[in-house]
Amino acid sequence: MTDERGAGGGIGGPEETGGTGGTGRAGGGGGATAAGRWPVSRKTLLKAALVAVPVPALLGGGAALARDHRPSDAPLEPTPFCDDGDDPTPPQTEGPYFKPNSPERASLLEPGTRGTRLTVSGFVFGLTCQPVAQALMDFWQADDAGAYDNRGFRMRGHQYTDARGAFTLTTIVPGLYPGRTRHIHVKVQAPGGRVLTTQLYFPGEPRNNTDPIFNAALLMNVRQAGPAKQATFDFVITSGRRGR
Ligand SMILES: [Fe+2]
C-alpha cells in the first residue's frame, strides 16, 4: 500500500544539503563534518566506551552508541551525511541508485535472497538524546553480488521507528561493487523534518582504507551470530520533534 508520508512523499522532500557539491563529503579524514563543532567527538566517545565496557564479541572493535549518552554530557554529534562516490552528478546526494516509493517493510529478504543474513538495529535520537518516534527510514543496498535493482525494489524498503525511536532492518550483507567499500544506504527523516541521507559501513573491510567517502563515524557495531551477523547503529538527527 502506498504510504502518504512514505518514501515517495517524505523522502522526496528537501535535502539537508550539508554534503552537496562534492566539497562537503563526510569521508576520508572526516574533516568537513559537523564533528568539529562539538567538544566531545565521536572518537572520544569511542575511546571512553572501549575503556569502560569491553565488548569482545564485536567484530573490528566497537563504536559508541548514542543510547549510552548521559543527559549531563555534551550534546550528541549529528550523524554525518554521506554522499555517494559513484554518483556522476554530485548534487544528487542520494546517489544514482536511490528510488522513491520503496515498499514499506522491515525485512528486505525475499524468497531466494542469497547472502549472509544481517540485522541492523538501533535508535534514532535528536541532539539531546530524545528518541524520535515515527521517523521514516528508507534503506537501499546492493545484493549479494554487488548489484542494485534499478527496475524493481529488491533490497529496498522503508519503515518507521517505534515509540522508543527504535528500528530493526532484516537484510543481507551487501556485496561489493567497484570503487566502493561495503555499505548500506539510508535516508532518515523525522516527522516533518529534513532528510538525512547517509550510509552505514562495516568494520574490518579492507576497502574502508581506500574508499574516499568512507567515514569511520558511520561504522556499525557488528557481531557474528552463528551464520548471521547482527549490527547496531544509532542515528542522531538534527531535525527531530521539538523543532530540532
Ligand atoms: Fe551504493
Automatic annotation (TrEMBL):
Q: Which InterPro entries match?
A: Intradiol_dOase_C (IPR000627), Intradiol_dOase_core (IPR015889), Intradiol_RC_Dioxygenase (IPR050770)
Intradiol ring-cleavage dioxygenases domain: which residues? 94-218
- The region annotated as signal peptide is none
Where is the region Disordered? 1-36, 66-113
Q: Which superkingdom, per the lineage? A: Bacteria
CDD domains named in the record: intradiol_dioxygenase
Q: Where is the composition biased (Gly residues)?
A: 7-33
Q: Which UniProt keywords apply?
A: Dioxygenase, Oxidoreductase
* Pfam families found in the cross-reference section: Dioxygenase_C
Q: Which family, according to the similarity comment?
A: Belongs to the intradiol ring-cleavage dioxygenase family.
> What is the protein's given name?
Dioxygenase
